């Protein structure tokens, strides 16, 4: 049963933007907001209008361009400054001008911060809080108050921290959110402080945790267990330093472990897709190991587990992956040997006999290649090509031959950079030479390859290179080190990857490009449609 | 005071190797073991001899090549198989042959697993456990038992789970480790099950947690709070699916939050360096957001915090970074504006006046460049070049000019891949042309650049390119998308990075290569020695 009163609160677009390496445009923020709304979060904190020009712009555009179905938009800001009349404080005015139904105010609840950072008196701080809350409530806003550094403040001066909570609530704040701003708490402290604060004030409480002790999610769960009805977090745990509580993890935990339907069950099935969509916008590399939605979250490697998995997946999984939009995967690696290859082959749609020679040969080849630096974990397509050679009893028919390839990049004062690739292939007995241009060597080679082949093999036209990663092996980048290149593709509705390894980075890329072409030209196993659902990406 | 009786147990080399994307050689495992020993962990689980050939080899070589000062080496394996005499079970023999002082046996404690996975009776499973433990104790080994799927097993059939614990202990196992194998627990369940098990059996207990609910560290802390005296984890939380408990985080939490000196305080100062050393071996990308030791763990971005930080760092940090070998950093970004630039400039050794025009101009340029895709967060050197131009009141003197550059890569059937770069520079009035070869375009250009310049500028010879990363902006890789290239360098004892942005990936790399050269040729601020301590790397 849906729990409408729980306040699931996302601060990706404000606190999450402190994430090192993340820079969002206003367009990006609107896109993220739409996805979070679709997931069903209750509140989306859009930014700090007035203080951050990009955020002022975001709220302005949101009024006409953001059509939220589930979430309420929230503007974040500070209480009025010491000694200034609330109505005259330009920050407070900016909060109102943002035009949101909800406003969250950050307030000091730690006597040390009141004195050193705000440089005012404890009494004035309380007046700032009460005055600003009252002003905004009077203006028709729902108000939440973030009690900054609450847990440290409670430890230092409990009475004052509690006074801050009471002052905010008495002035009309709907929820007071207890913030572990420095992230130094462990769950037992959070639980007892939340429980005590609730018992001593009776105020509706929330939690805002950071991950500096590796316990942000656990702290959030502990606070909710202790009676908090509002939980803040960010997509993927984005945030400053060690990040905020990962709101995706918290959401799944609340629904699946606590039976609290803070988003509807049907929406929870969009969790993994929501995560991927956010990653595409932020370009912060996805964590394969992210709980519930990471590419590795339900990925099994060891041969030991692989055999048990064939019997009963629930023996080795704490929940059903499909509930969060994820799937179980098995990896081919030298740990798993034949069991892994068998399981993977079946996953790809092939019918293989347990203990077949083909599987054994494929497993041996995988192990040898891995010793040379190959990794098939993000390269399902390259693995499938290898498997097919063994299942078919020999190398795949050569639909074309490569005679030569080259690519050059050059720049000079005052001119545009030029990149040109040339490939020379033999296709159906004829020599075909094609050139390609692009934004770099890999892109140019890819273009040349398609120029040469697409006329003869029209199915190649649907291939779209979506990402490539170069990993220099052995930790050295001087001459002599090998490089492993992983290229990711979108192929109609499916996503898959290829791998290449060579002492030369461009040659490694060329291998991976060729594998992709061979893979598309390969017939899939009987029964697998070209528009089969996308395979889960290995890394987000 | 050192707590020698606490069993800090590392399973990086066994459970951690299930990490997707990690493949270690025997040499790698020996190197990691040495670093963990130096840190002061109590036990190092080296692998599964007999089952994994590489691990059999590891234990063989460890006998002569691994000189452990603090840790005990542990061999991991399974109890004898059903219906087989312990002394005749080849797996058990392999455990003995590993020659370690300690052996850890994994045993089923979940009735469902005993029946479905082992396919034997509950009674035989108990006999397997007791028999194998007794056999190994009799052979002079200290024995730990991992009670697999304990928490799920306890929930399903409490009595049997407790019987397993008792049987292991009565047969001579020193510690029974309760494993949340599927990772589905939350801390409160862990706490109560550990407390109950301890109360009902009196056996010395340990905890082995996984991160599938995002609570591995918290679960470990909860178990220790409930009386466990043994905690298992892996370096950086490596492991299958969502990983194991991050032993670095657990160690720091136990020492700094619980006052339990599970490693000596002086050794804790090596935590960050240990983490980096392990990363260099495993090549699994370091998480900047890792608690305590991540590059971002004590990194502050927002202008709000930057001003408070100048007053009192403790206001915004939950502990002192140096205690774990980390340092506080500030980031230059558009969020921080002038405060961030000022703070960063001082961190780099420059004397700047608060509110100076130079700082304001630098902040404006940073913001503009960031809008075009630049990121200075991993590129301190590029930032410093920009800052110097503003502080010096104009562009840096041109010690050389670039006339043109080009690089080509080509391959053909039956021949080695060739990469050649040519650069044409004007140095001290003369035109210098140089070529370079390498393992790819960036390496070749770098070589050519140094061939041209090192004779005139000998200080450049100490530059060593250690890593480069290409990020395609806007999520597209077709023509038209811009690329951002970050190159990392080792320069004597210092490490720093440069950035380049261009529509062409190679041109972006070229920019970053040039920045590095200009940076080395720049005089540092007065008072900063060339062998200043290395700057903390932005991403591990």
Automatic annotation (TrEMBL), chains A, B:
Read off the SUPFAM superfamilies from this record. Answer: 2-isopropylmalate synthase LeuA, allosteric (dimerisation) domain, Aldolase
User: What's the catalysed reaction?
Assistant: pyruvate + acetyl-CoA + H2O = (3R)-citramalate + CoA + H(+)
- What keywords are assigned to this protein? Amino-acid biosynthesis, Branched-chain amino acid biosynthesis, Isoleucine biosynthesis, Transferase
Gene Ontology biological process terms from the UniProt entry: isoleucine biosynthetic process; L-leucine biosynthetic process
One of the entry's Gene Ontology molecular-function terms is: (R)-citramalate synthase activity
User: What pathway does this protein act in?
Assistant: Amino-acid biosynthesis; L-isoleucine biosynthesis; 2-oxobutanoate from pyruvate: step 1/3
| E.C. designation(s) | 2.3.3.21
Q: Which InterPro entries does the annotation name?
A: 2-isopropylmalate_synth_dimer (IPR013709), AIPM/Hcit_synth_CS (IPR002034), Aldolase_TIM (IPR013785), Citramal_synthase (IPR005675), LeuA/HCS_post-cat (IPR054691), LeuA_allosteric_dom_sf (IPR036230), PYR_CT (IPR000891)
One Pfam family, short name please?
HMGL-like
Q: State the source organism's domain of life.
A: Bacteria
The Pyruvate carboxyltransferase domain sits at 6-269
Q: Which NCBIfam families match?
A: citramal_synth
Family membership: Belongs to the alpha-IPM synthase/homocitrate synthase family.
Q: What is this protein called?
A: Citramalate synthase
**Organism field:** Actinospica acidiphila
């Amino acid at each position: 049963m849906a729990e409408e009163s729980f306040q699931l609160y996302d601060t990706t677009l404000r606190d999450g933007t402190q994430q090192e390496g993340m820079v969002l445009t206003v367009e990006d923020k609107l896109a993220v907001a739409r996805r979070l709304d679709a997931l069903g979060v209750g509140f989306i904190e859009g930014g700090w209008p007035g203080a951050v020009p990009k955020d002022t712009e975001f709220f302005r555009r949101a009024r006409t361009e953001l059509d939220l179905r589930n979430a309420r938009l929230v503007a974040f800001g500070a209480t009025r400054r010491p000694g200034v009349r609330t109505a005259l404080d330009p920050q407070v005015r900016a909060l109102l001008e943002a035009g949101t139904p909800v406003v969250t105010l950050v307030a000091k609840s730690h006597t040390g911060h009141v004195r050193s950072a705000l440089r005012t008196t404890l009494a004035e701080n309380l007046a700032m809080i009460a005055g600003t809350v009252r002003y905004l409530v009077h203006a028709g806003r729902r108000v939440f108050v973030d009690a900054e550094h609450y847990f440290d403040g409670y430890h230092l001066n409990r009475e004052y921290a509690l006074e801050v909570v009471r002052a905010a609530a008495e002035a009309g704040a709907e929820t007071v959110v207890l913030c572990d701003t420095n992230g130094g708490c462990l769950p037992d402290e959070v639980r007892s402080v939340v429980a005590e604060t609730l018992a001593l004030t009776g105020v509706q409480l929330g939690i805002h945790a950071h991950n500096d002790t590796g316990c942000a999610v656990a702290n959030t769960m502990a606070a909710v267990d202790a009676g908090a009805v509002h939980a803040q977090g960010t997509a993927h745990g984005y945030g400053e330093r060690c990040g905020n509580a990962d709101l995706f993890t918290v959401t799944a935990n609340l629904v699946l472990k606590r039976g609290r339907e803070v988003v509807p069950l049907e929406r929870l099935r969009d969790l993994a897709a929501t995560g991927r969509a956010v990653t595409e916008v932020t370009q912060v590399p996805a964590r394969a190991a992210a709980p519930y939605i990471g590419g590795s979250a339900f990925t099994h490697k060891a041969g030991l587990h692989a055999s048990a998995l064939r019997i009963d997946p629930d023996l080795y999984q704490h929940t059903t992956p499909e509930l969060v939009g994820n799937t179980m995967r098995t990896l081919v690696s030298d740990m798993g040997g034949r069991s892994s290859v068998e399981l993977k082959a079946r996953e790809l749609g092939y019918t293989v006999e347990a203990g077949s020679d083909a599987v054994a040969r494929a497993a041996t080849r995988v192990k040898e290649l891995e010793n040379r630096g190959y990794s098939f974990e993000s390269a399902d397509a390259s693995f499938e090509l290898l498997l097919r050679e063994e299942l078919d009893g020999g190398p795949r028919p050569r639909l074309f031959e490569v005679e030569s390839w080259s690519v050059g990049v050059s720049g000079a004062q005052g001119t545009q950079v030029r990149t040109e690739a040339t490939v020379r292939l033999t296709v159906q007995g004829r020599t075909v030479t094609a050139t390609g241009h692009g934004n770099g060597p890999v892109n140019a080679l890819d273009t040349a390859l398609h120029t040469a082949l697409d006329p003869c093999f029209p199915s190649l036209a649907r291939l779209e290179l979506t990402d490539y990663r170069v990993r220099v092996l052995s930790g050295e980048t001087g001459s002599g080190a090998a490089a492993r290149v992983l290229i990711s593709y979108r192929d109609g509705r499916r996503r898959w990857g290829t791998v290449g390894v060579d002492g030369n980075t461009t040659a490694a890329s060329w291998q991976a490009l060729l594998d992709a072409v061979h893979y598309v030209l390969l017939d899939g196993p009987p029964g697998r449609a070209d528009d089969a659902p996308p395979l889960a990406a290995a890394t987000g």
